[in-house]
Protein 1
Amino acid sequence: MAAAASMMPNFGQQISSKNDLVPDWTRQEVSTGTTIMAVEYDGGVVIGADSRTTTGAYIANRVTDKLTPIHDRIFCCRSVHPTLTLWADPVCRGAWPHLLCGGFRSGSAADTQAIADVVAYQLGFHSIELDEPPLVETAANLFRASCYRYREELMAGILVAGWDRRKGGQVYCVPIGGMLVRQPVSVGGSGSTYIYGFMDSNYKPGLSKDQCLELTAAALSLAMERDGSSGGVVRLASISEEGVERRVILGNQLPKFSTH
Amino acid sequence: MATLTVSRPPFGGFSFENCRRNAVLEGEANKVGCSLPAARKTGTTICGVVFKDGVVLGADTRATEGMVVADKNCSKIHYISPNIYCCGAGTAADTEMTTQIISSNLELHSLSTGRLPRVATANRMLKQMLFRYQGYIGAALVLGGVDCNGPHLYSIYPHGSTDKLPYVTMGSGSLAAMAVFEDRYKPNMEEEEAKRLVRDAIAAGIFNDLGSGSNIDLCVITKGKVDYIRPHDEANKKGVRVNELEVAQLTGDYKYKRGTTGVLSKTVLDLEVVEETVQTMDTS
């Protein structure tokens, strides 16, 4: 894939731009603009995402499910351009990682779907070999391995969250470039920039599951209100020892705030 | 990633070694005044809808080469397996070859498992192949079919991402078709209602998008039966040119009556058989 990387983008443009009958956005890559979020609580994790996938200015899928199951108790939230997912880690917050690499491709739903498929396969295989449910940290490391190895070609930011017997509920963040860090709360995607302030002021350690669900729903609806690439419905899931509970909050049922 | 292929196992995508040379040649050709032929694209409106007993796939029938219509009645609904069909938008060659390759692999897979293939399998094969080529295969597909788990509909983008939805549209006319779907789609429709909805969606694409046109093809897939209706609706019938004075059809008749051309002279040469040999062939 990396063989003729420097040559690729120019010629792609030349060949396809001759035909004016076909509008521009049909040639654009499908990207998940996105806002995703994951919160740990005592006994499990709560994850949430918006549901919009865009090709340029057209919404290709307004009901996307970005919460992808990797294993029974492990999910991943897929996103692109996770600009500042190092929010909750106090050590890293000062460093502003420059995540605009290469720029040939605007990053895509295809990358995140492909990585998730590969990791689900690897994790399933590993779990059968072990004869026990896999650890969330293992899943996160598998994501990191793929994202780091193909960092020049891929542009995908992933939040891995789940429950296992060893450490309970965990959230791991794997941004573009292939770093791996565990955080109690993490937000990602293009819409995440709009809710750092909200998360800073409203998150406290020791929240219950319902408080986490409310916090996630509120944060996501705020981000969806301000970010053009995020929208649709809010998909939530809570993962614990008992299992996975999924719910959807439709557009008209989103929490309302004073300015909108 | 384990994949099943006919001959050799899949490996990395295209080789771009000759791109620079090709660009130079194209530049030189343009200097002289000629341009390279454009790839034939299916401008296209394709769509699909899940109804109570199955799926309905629809497509227009225009294929364009630049600004010229290359084929007025091309078939965009491709066969994948007896219970799965796929509409293709984008570069015509890419959609044709991709669907044929996956159809072939799926048939081998189905013989190996001994079962009717599932739509999810076809989806996996298509997305893994398109991802491997990183979007350089310009095939945007609407895949639909009915298997043991019911009716399924997927949209597959050239870069390899897929969406599983109850109604999808693709191609340059997809916005027009999606407008019709968003207005009139209901879950669990009857077959006639679904066919009318798809027909109207494709018609919206045909009449509002320059890249789509001609007729409307439909494919209705239900458990155990496939109705490939081509054409379902001739939305754009070619007019008949008539010579008003003689009230005779001018178009389409290229046969001349015997005696139209006058015969000046006639010479008959008898061919003499000089030698006759018979060579037997072993056809066993």
Note: The longest helix of chain A spans residues 109-130.
Protein 2
Amino acid sequence: QVSVKIRFILIQNRAGKTRLAKWYMQFDDDEKQKLIEEVHAVVTVRDAKHTNFVEFRNFKIIYRRYAGLYFCICVDVTDNNLAYLEGIHNFVEVLNEYFHNVCELDLVFNFYKVYTVVDEMFLAGEIRETSQTKVLKQLLMLQSLE
Amino acid sequence: MPAVSKGDGMRGLAVFISDIRNCKSKEAEIKRINKELANIRSKFKGDKALDGYSKKKYVCKLLFIFLLGHDIDFGHMEAVNLLSSNKYTEKQIGYLFISVLVNSNSDLIRLINNAIKNDLSSRNPTFMNLALHCIANVGSREMAEAFAADVPRILVAGDTMDSVKQSAALCLLRLNRTSPDLIPMGEWTSRVVHLLNDQHLGVVTAATSLIITLAQKNPDDFKTSVSLAVARLSRIVTSASTDLQDYTYYFVAAPWLSVKLLRLLQCYPPPEDAAIRGRLTECLETILNKAQEPPKSKKVQHSNAKNAVLFEAISLIIHHDSEPTLLVRACNQLGQFLQHRETNLRYLALESMCTLASSEFSHEAVKTHIETVINALKTERDVSVRQRAVDLLYAMCDRSNAKQIVAEMLSYLETADYSIREEIVLKVAILAEKYAVEYTWYVDTILNLIRIAGDYVSEEVWYRVIQIVINRDDVQGYAAKTVFEALQAPACHENLVKVGGYILGEFGNLIAGDPRSSPLIQFNLLHSKFHLCSVPTRALLLSAYVKFINLFPEVKGTIQEVLRSDSQLRNADVELQQRAVEYLRLSCIASTDILATVLEEMPPFPERESSILAKLKKKKGSGTVSDVEDTRKERNTNLGVSSVFQVTSSPSSDLLGLGNSSAVNSGSPPAASNAASLLVDVFSESLPVAPLGTASAPIIEENFSRCFSTSMLDRYFWPSHISGRLLRGSPNISKNAFQTRSRLTALSAFRFVCKNNGVLYENQLLQIGLKSEFRQNLGRMYVFYGNKTSTQFLNFSASVVCHEPLNLNVHTKTADPVVDGGAQLQQILNIECLSDFVEAPVLNINFRYGGSVQNIAVRLPVTLNKFFQPTEMMSQDFFQRWKQLSDPQQEVQKIFKAKHSMDTEITKAKIIGFGTALLDGVDPNPSNFVGAGVIHTKTIQVGCLLRLEPNTQAQMYRLTLRTSRGSVSQRLCDLLSEQF
């Protein structure tokens, strides 16, 4: 009951193009593709008046839309919805700061850096670091390395 | 071009990505990719050694291509080479490629592990983090094997940098999840707990996740984390909103860490140490208080972060379920959210209240919100919110509001979303059955259900209504009348035809006296539906017709005519044809006596509750909702609430442990005249294990069918595949109920006060069922140990310890030391009551399962009242004896609040179940209950008089007991007062 674990994090645009897929559970490639499509189908039909949560298989998706991008986190049904909802926002604010007004293209061209940002903030399906200051400091330090 | 990409080149990558984006078609994209793949391949194969930068660039391109959804079958080696680079950016791309693409590729795993090993020992925190993230992301067994020792060492080493500690903690967590056997606990475990004290809140955040996972598996080893977590939480919630600087999020101090700490505390019962407990209560109060303060910011982020902590605090309060004031405060807070303008909050409030409804302390408080919840059902735009409202109504339902809730659910059902209809149907069916006071209401409700949502009414639901009608003769006439009327509708659902066919076939005679529903009219009505129905329904109708031949000889000719028609006798469907032929022959050649025997009314079904519940659970998976149901169900069983069907069901129901114990207590053998008690006998001899649930269900089924076959009913009445299914489903009323929460085990002692059979204990391995009978001062208890696993239990032993050996004696035979997987073991306990006693004996069970030794201790439900013999007496005698017992010590009185709705019939049943006779017309106030009985012990007999005065307005009871012994009065009062 207490289990806390992110199953996956997805960033998708409205058209269903995946901008980030981070898996914290073993899925084979077909299964991943199916999940990506299902999540897209479930999330994009919801409107702003709906909750930011949606049941999904035996889990739930916590999601938030930013412009044309959907940020989705899949967690256990017993997990804390609002903590993950703000976890998403915290992550987005870091991206915004790091990429100076982040837009979808930043995520496309710098996909390999987005993975680094994710790993700083989420690891092994858990929240690793929540301080924006600390994460950005670390990212800038890495940026300065060659 | 994005801002950051300027600095660090890989221009080639940017160009390639742009090219791909500019492709006008899928074909163009594939062409461009193939060109690039060819280019990269030639570079990798070329004679010229590539520099690190090019290698990084090409590997990164491959990764991009892979992420677009194309297969990549080369480049792994180059990626592994990048791992040994001294440049961060090259190493990072190497690790990323490995994390995303390598599925424990055996050729490379040694090389990869070597590179990781080097980085782990490099003392360069950046490299160490890359390596740890890679282990955490891949998490394969090979990696667990290779680094099981390194990761814990890094985590607790004094000189490890904070950010590395964070990664190491979560890396260890990942390895522990994937390969727990490879990560032995060690001296690092105690040091991990102390990370909760770390100055760096990021380290605490990561460590808390690790400790939660470890504590879930080995709670005892991490007990010390409770006080540390409370201390840490206390510092956070009392800090000013700016104290924690980096960790303050929109004026909320460390919300994510708070949530995790509150989660960790949910791995444990409330702290025993009063000081810690007090401090935690203060924290929880502070969090609840903050919810009432004006917001420090209008931003949704502020309120979300604050409420994330609040909801987690409420979860902990519910988990502890021990502080009534906190529970009620939580409920009030959620009540405010029910009307909040944020949909998220309304949703979460409904969800959280669902669990609050299962706590006895807050159940009533939850119920006060019923109107708001019903309103949510009608007005919410988001179906998932409406779904939560349905769940909550289901959870808050009890006898007092069942009619209203069922009515609202039925009316919602008319317009409900298709996706949740079936579930609502199941819920309505369960509530209607569980809280039915009048059977007529139950029958009406189910028929309405079929009318409104026939397509969603599963077999379990309509089987169930038939089982109940068959078992309850006082509802049969009403049921026949109601289905007859319902069938008049020009378009009625096929499920209604099935129910109607079955019920009229059995009980049509009960309404045949009315000329408006004469036999012929009944038959014509049924037959008018025949041609619109599917084959299984037609088969059922044919059986109903042959039953009519027995019930109403006057329509025999008409029915024979129908059976004889070509459309029946030559029907293309084998089942229909066979039935028509056999029924026709039977009706022609059999004498009335034989017909009457063969086509006799169905005997009562063995009572079992959960076939629908099981279905609902299956539907909901193992999510929260079913947990809620479990707890609630458990609460009901524990505290003795049972529906009318359980309390007053026919003798056969005792078989399944749901019945009324008075039949056994009164000492009179059950009447052996009807088919039902015959069945009981069959079962109690050959299959005393019947209460033990799913494992034995098929056997019962088989035997049950065999019993029917003797009267040919099975063969003739049901297609073979249906006859068995009626009985299927788990009868375990308390399945999954006994988890590790001690409060519940304690309460369960009262569960069997008014009944003798049922499931005593159950965990994932073992189920213990009971069947017991008592006469005078002696008792016999059959204990059934069901091995739920597929593995043998070894060294199995079960012994009984009596704490008052002078007052109570229990003899047992040694149990067989081996219990095979899926098998059941029976043990007989002989009980002798020597004198009055308080402490129930304890059953100690030990066995080896797999590698570990299991110890289970359960209190046996041997209570003083089991040795009652009821005594009937007149009013005059009662008061005379009452006056004789006037010594103040002989009387015990208790005034207490009703825990359940104050239903007269239920109360009566409980007093009878308790063992005394229920005396009518003794008390001048007809709403009071009066009982009398004698407790038999070997040394003495103690006469006992009791009087129970309900005050429905105040929802209180006053219970007065007088016996010749003060200790007996006290004990009986304690036992009985827990039942209402």
Note: The first helix of chain B runs from residue 11 to 22.
